[in-house]
Amino acid sequence: MNMELWYTEKQTENHGITTKITETLYSEKTEFQQLDIINTKQFGRMLVLDGMVMTTDVDEFVYHEMIAHVALNTHPNPKKVLVVGGGDGGAIREIVKHPSVEKAVLAEIDGGVIEASKKFFPAIASELSGNPKVDVQVIDGIKHIHDHKGEYDVIMVDSTEPVGPAVGLFEKGFYQGIYDALKPDGIMVAQTESPWFNRDLIKRVFKDIKSIFPITRLYTCSIPTYPSGLWSFTIGSKQYDPLEVDASKIKDLNTKYYNAEVHYAAFKLPNFVAELTRD
């Protein structure tokens, strides 16, 4: 008799997802969180932090393309970009596809995530080593933002769920800090969880960002291993509206999910999601 191994992520008190696994490849208690890497039948290798799925071989491209390219194609000339969190390197990999980018800074609090990703997710972490445009810093992103006023064209908040070390990345003061760290025409984007399970969070974050940035938009995409599969991002812009981007300027960046049509379509929200953006 073969015993089957399954991994279950309890996504809410009343709901979880489960997936068949073949082995645990790596397990470490870092300074900040429990880090596990498992091999799954359906999604390949899976990075799990504190029991929450962060990324997988099979569907990582959706999240990383959508957190990066919407903002980078909205800004006409992004040269200096910051990723807060995102220690797996996927957002950085997408950012450096843009020819205008001269410097991409990663501010990740947990060096353990960076090192494990380099070893077990080389395709995701491919630009974290050896790319002269990339500056990897093991540092608290909140502190980094505070110390770099007016420096960045685009800032991406690639955080875990709002627990543990990431709690401060969902607070209004943090978004004000981002505003101050951006240039006069800068753009921020943050991952803002599931419209099914995190409605209060999305509503609060949208309201907070809208109180700081003149242009604020919510967009969504489909990520099967994230809670509910429907995922949201919130963009705050000082000057440029993602809905007014010239489609002919959206570059072909060798992407699997993002394209010019998806750029606009992602902002078309179902009623139950759109209502989260209204006062």
TrEMBL record:
Alphabetical GO biological process terms: spermidine biosynthetic process
Domain PABS: 4-238
E.C. numbers: 2.5.1.16
Residues where spermidine binds: H64, D88, D158, S159, T160, E161
GO terms for cellular component: cytosol
Pfam families named among the record's database cross-references: Spermine_synt_N, Spermine_synth
Alphabetical UniProt keywords: Cytoplasm, Polyamine biosynthesis, Spermidine biosynthesis, Transferase
SUPFAM superfamilies with a match to the protein in the record: S-adenosyl-L-methionine-dependent methyltransferases
Top-level taxon in the UniProt lineage: Bacteria
GO molecular function, one term: spermidine synthase activity
Annotated binding of S-methyl-5'-thioadenosine, by residue: Q33, E108, D140, G141, P165
Catalyzed reactions per annotation: S-adenosyl 3-(methylsulfanyl)propylamine + putrescine = S-methyl-5'-thioadenosine + spermidine + H(+)
Residues at the catalytic site: D158 (proton acceptor)
Family: Belongs to the spermidine/spermine synthase family.
Assembly and binders: Homodimer or homotetramer.
NCBIfam families the UniProt entry points to: PRK00811.1 (NF002010), speE (TIGR00417)
Protein name as it appears in the record: Polyamine aminopropyltransferase
UniProt organism field: Brevibacillus aydinogluensis
